[in-house]
Amino acid sequence: MTTTTKTDFNDLLSTRAKIGRQPVGTIANSTPTAQPPLYAFGGGNPDPASFPLKGLAEATNQMLEKEGAASLLYGDPLGYSALRDLIVHKYELFEGLKVDRDNIIIANGSGAALGLAFSAFVDVGDYIISESPTFSGTLGAIRRHGPIVLDAPVDQEGIDTDVVRQHLEDLRRQGKKCKLIYTIVNFQNPSGPTQSLRRRKELVKLAQDYDTLILEDDAYGELRFDGEQHPSLYALDDSGSVIRAGTLSKILGAGVRLGWLCAPKDMIPVFQSFNFGGGVNPFMSRIAVYFMRDNLKSHVELLINVYREKRDAMLKGLWEVLEGTDVEISKPEGGFFIWIKLPTGTDTKKLFQLTSEARVQIVPGSSFYPNGGGERHIRLAYSYESPEKCYEGAKLVGQAIRGAMS
Ligand SMILES: Cc1ncc(COP(=O)(O)O)c(C=O)c1O
Which residue in 153, 187, 247, 263 could disulfide with 243, CB within 3.0 to 4.6 Å? Predict the structure, then answer.
């Protein structure tokens, strides 16, 4: 069997394939561990213990009985219509937001949905604005499209809109355009804050004033443990300036690979033209609908309690060991991640060596910065491990940090 090609295919690669190439099989650039990790705090995997396996098995049987062979045919290129309706229902149920089925296109997870938006709007050499830090997975997709990424820092209120305004003004002065502003509005991945209402309004106004688009990523919005929910940027906009991405990965299972874009209706065919056709996961879409239509609210309520407990267990473990240092540890109001600014004098190389020996997987902060930075940060995901392991593993991380302090 041929495992390598003889042709030097590198000469033949497209511009997009050449830029921003990532090593094969990386998950959010987690640190390697000496042996398989005992504490998987790397990628944002959902909690396996709460997967509704029985409910999904029943939903699959019901679906097959009712829909039979139709479920294994090619599907609607925009996605299974009942799933698009379920998403419309979900927005209404959780946010009181009214959208139409025609605003929704299904994709292979929200990662692929974001990719559709980048493909539709971003060429090599274009300008976009992104939060810095931001989700490393999206950074991979952004890099593949080759834009120049202008950083906007994130503080307790989310993206710094003064910096966004400055970038937009600078570009305008140079006769250039910003194609889009990418932002994660709730429990920002990795750094945790929820964008304040004030900033949301400012950002939407900026997009309108400077004729650009916002790509609003909301992978975790339903999983709020504390604090106040704000209207989405999509809800605040009345000018068709916002494209919003969502996913079932965090509230049903990442393996279902079902996400979507919610966007102005006339944009939907543009996104669709980047999908091959045949529909995205029509079989799984049906199962998801059969399960979620009766269980959406109760399942999300269950998950909120699951993830709150894990967040608190991880925070407890970290603070037990790191109290008294100048460490900064985020306390997100929801979502999957804790962001840590390491104490002064922490040797990160030593830290990664110690966490590797302790078999704790973490993600170096530098993975999340479009243009460099983050060397004093790490991200921990509490989503996957049990509360007990979140607590124990967090103490190990705390001890490793202490061990790496000079
Ligand atoms: C902020 C954010 N956006 C998008 C995604 C992509 O998720 P999926 O492709 O599974 O929907 C993730 C996954 O971790 C995420 O954290």
Answer: 263
